[in-house]
Write a structure and sequence with these properties.
The chain is α/β, with parallel strands linked by helices and 471 residues long. It has one domain: Alkaline Phosphatase, subunit A (3-Layer(aba) Sandwich), CATH 3.40.720.10. 32% of the residues lie in helices and 16% in strands. It contains 16 helices and 14 strands. The strands form 3 sheets. The chain has an 8-stranded mixed beta sheet, with helices on both faces. A 4-stranded antiparallel beta sheet has the order 11-12-13-14, covered by helices on one side. A hairpin with a 6-residue loop joins strand 13 and strand 14. It starts with a helix and ends with a helix. The structure holds zinc ion. Zinc ion binds next to loops.
């Protein structure tokens, strides 16, 4: 049984609605090459394209308006390893057995990774990532001729990528995957401070591990209560980092244009997850399944695509099938996502998004109308009316409209059962990080206090019991 078929027909109100704008266009011609960029930790709503008040992203805004931007793209996990694993394999994190911060799990060799599919279709393949939870040892290197996980920042990442591209012949196709932690790190180049960081003289001004402070709540507790000025300073550093990353991407794309590759190349820009800034009491990512963590930018640009903003909900799971479809390759039957080619040409449909977290075990089902969150910890379960409460401020779990909620409960139950029954893609291999890797993860805030409240991700029976207690 193909999961894709199962997921498409999940009976949730509003799902699979065909839509076509008045300007429906022909199916676009096929791009020759692919560049996929993942800007780690980039919230959708901090880009001008999606309505942000600050001009953080002029380049991404430009390509987003010239290409196809998706307004509701939902990540399948709120942190780096499982989200990228899902994006690049088109399988849900639990199907892959992706796990916890201290042992994220290994992507099984049986998974059909995007790079493997494109390599089989004749593409030269190359990745430059920033390591940590994107290290080759987690299984991300499958299908890449070279998987370079030592890209320190956007400057070195872009430089290494352009160097590799010099060796590609005109008659060859290529797939390039770029990943950066530059937004995750809260360390923008000093030259960006004057424009983006308001004058600040608080206690954090000389703190050299802001990412750890934001992500690691024990570190935050040690720093004492953060006041409004501290929080604004943190957000300013975040915005400055987006602006710097946007500048590097613009320079990179200008070089692609100068080399005559832009018209032949599909450019896809997205993020693995967002970031919380105390909207629900916490900060960082990897703790909750609220939209500030799960709703990410997705931009697909190629000169042949008619510009549009797609309002329908899609998923990171759909990125790989879309790329493969656009370049004329064949998607493996194992993939759980769907091609968005219909959305690119004005024939969109809304896809139900399931997301999950196995460090603080939780599962969610989201439609544009509502979100259901199930978790092992009872206080963090929730039901939200996204039409009237898009910021998820009013938990309706205790006053559940069961008629509205029933299809979501049924959908999540089918999804849980289907994923639990398939063990083909669980490697069971433990990941052990060395000292240098642990230091990198600690600087990103992933170690230390973050493990404190974690429990084991339970078996299907426990999830079904939670489901039955809740519905
Ligand atoms: Zn990440």
């Amino acid at each position: 049984m193909r999961f894709a078929q199962l997921l498409v027909v999940v009976a949730v109100a509003g799902a699979a609605l065909p839509a076509c704008s008045p300007a429906c266009s022909e199916v676009p011609s096929r791009p020759k090459n692919v560049i996929l960029v993942s800007i780690d930790t980039l919230r959708r709503d901090h880009l001008g394209l999606y309505g942000y008040s600050r001009n953080t992203s002029p380049f991404l805004d430009r390509i987003g308006r010239a290409g196809v931007a998706f307004d509701q793209c939902i990540s399948q996990a709120p942190w780096t390893a499982p989200s990228h694993a899902s994006m690049l394999s088109s399988l849900y994190p639990s199907v892959l057995g992706m796990g916890r911060f201290e042992d994220p799990g290994h992507i099984s060799d049986t998974a059909d990774m995007l790079a493997e599919v494109l390599a089989d279709a004749g593409f030269r393949t190359h990745a430059v990532t920033s390591g940590g939870f994107m290290a080759a040892k987690i299984g991300f290197a499958q299908g890449f001729e070279i998987y370079d996980d030592a890209g320190l920042n956007m400057e070195t990442t872009v430089s290494r990528a352009l160097q590799w591209l010099r060796g590609i012949r005109d008659d060859e196709r290529f797939f390039l995957f770029l990943h950066t932690y530059d937004v995750h790190k809260y360390k923008p180049p000093a030259s960006y401070h004057a424009t983006w960081v308001e004058p600040y003289s608080g206690a954090l001004a000389f703190h050299d591990r802001i990412a750890d402070l934001v992500q690691n709540h024990e570190e935050q507790a040690k720093a004492g209560a953060l006041d409004d000025a501290d929080r604004r300073y943190i957000r300013d550093l975040y915005d400055a980092s987006i602006a710097a990353t946007d500048d590097w991407l613009r320079r990179f794309w200008e070089t692609i244009e100068q080399r005559g590759l832009a018209d032949d190349t599909l450019l896809v820009v997205t993020a693995d997850h967002g970031e919380e800034f105390w909207e629900h009491g916490g900060s960082g990512h990897g703790y909750t399944l609220f939209d500030e963590n799960l709703r990410v930018p997705l931009i697909v640009y190629h000169p042949s695509l008619a510009p549009r903003m797609v309002p329908e909900q899609v998923r990171l799971l759909d990125v790989a099938p879309t790329i493969v479809d656009l370049v004329g390759a064949t998607a493996p039957t194992s993939w759980q996502g769907e091609s968005l080619e219909g959305s690119l040409s004005g024939h969109a449909k809304t896809l139900v998004a399931f997301s999950e977290h196995s460090h603080f075990p939780a599962k969610s089902a989201r439609t544009p109308q509502a979100k259901l969150i199930l978790s092992v910890a009872e206080p963090t379960r929730g039901f939200f009316d996204l039409r009237n409460d898009p910021l998820e401020t009013k938990n309706l779990m205790q006053e559940l409209d069961r008629a509205t909620a029933r299809p979501m409960f049924e959908g999540i139950e089918r999804w849980l059962r289907a994923n639990a029954s398939d063990s083909r893609f669980r490697s069971g291999t433990r990941i052990v990080f060395n000292a240098a890797e642990l230091e990198q993860l600690a600087a990103l805030g992933y170690l230390g206090g973050t493990a404190g409240g974690a429990v084991e991700d339970p078996d299907l029976d426990v999830w079904l019991k939670i489901l039955s207690d809740t519905r």
